[in-house]
Amino acid sequence: GYDDARRVWNGIIDRHPAVIARCASAADVQATVRIAGRHRPPAVTVRGGGHQVAGSAVCDDGLVIDLSFITNVTVDPNARTARVQGGARWADVDRATQRYGLATTGGEASITGVAGLTLGGGMGLLHRAYGLACDNLRSIEIVTADGQLRKASREQHPDLFWAARGAGRGLGVVTSFEFDLRELGRDVAVAQVLYPYKDAEAGLRAWRDAVLAAPETVSPEAILWSIPPDPSVPAELHGVKVFIAAGVYAGDPTDAAETLAPYARLGTPIIDQSGTLPYVEVQSALDELVPDGGRYYFKSHNLDELTDDAIATLVACDRDRPNPETLIAIRTLGGAIDRVTLDESAYPHRGAAFNLSIDAIWSDPADDERVIGWARSTWQAMRPYANGGVYL
Question: How far apart are CA 363 and CA 366, in angstroms?
């Protein structure tokens, strides 16, 4: 089982740890950390959901503390909280919380690991309404380097709790997270409008102007992509490059029409896939397009504004996009994200208006150099328009 145990979501990661400790409890984690303290392996890494793009869950020659068997989610619907173990993915959370019509900000693909996303901040489809994933934390249980299991919250070990909200990995091994939940309902209104690629530059300018006036109940996204092989879309459109305007309404779907209407008025749509859908379907819609074992290389920028020059540069880079699977996404920030002050959490990018994500996705190892090269050159081209912050 060694080769299976060392694999992570990103297929370009091929590392060979000396030992993989497959923990089944917080006590197992404590024992493993103490062993590491005695034997000092050259590296110690922690595998939560195993989904991080850079593959930091595994190392060469060292020790992996594997939490992938610790995935339980317990919901208290009266207190509107969820206790989530460190190896869970967002699909586990969504299934448990949606039984009660509750939700919290989670990854945009449900196969994303809870731990890595939350510790690095945690953008998602609801972040302008609810804040980042880390903003919804009530407490964590963490095994620190001395092998002790500690609870950290605003009242207990507040320094650890501060760091857990955005500083990323390396603090210890978080064995469970306690989240605040919001009443969302089981169905959500979604805008997803596909426009002709020839109109991408004009469409992005119109999208930017619309989102600057958008209420916090929607976290709009713009995507430069190619139509995936969706059975609901005519086959002759599969692989056609498009500009997509998308967003999920955080509230009663019957109240969403006015808020989502601007995203269908950015030009003349090819396809309008907007409607009301189960939240769990929306959260898992991308899963099959980013499968375990695919090849991934992502880079990001935070932007304080999205100028006409930035849009023109981005579209020019996108014209050379290396394959249909690869995409460029722009996420709108602000809203509830900005209401958390810098002294409350380690997440340092509260003032950014947009996040630009360059998501290279492919399957053939022979394409590694070409696809990664495009992602890096696009990132460099957009650097003059960025504020220096990147998404962990």
Answer: 9
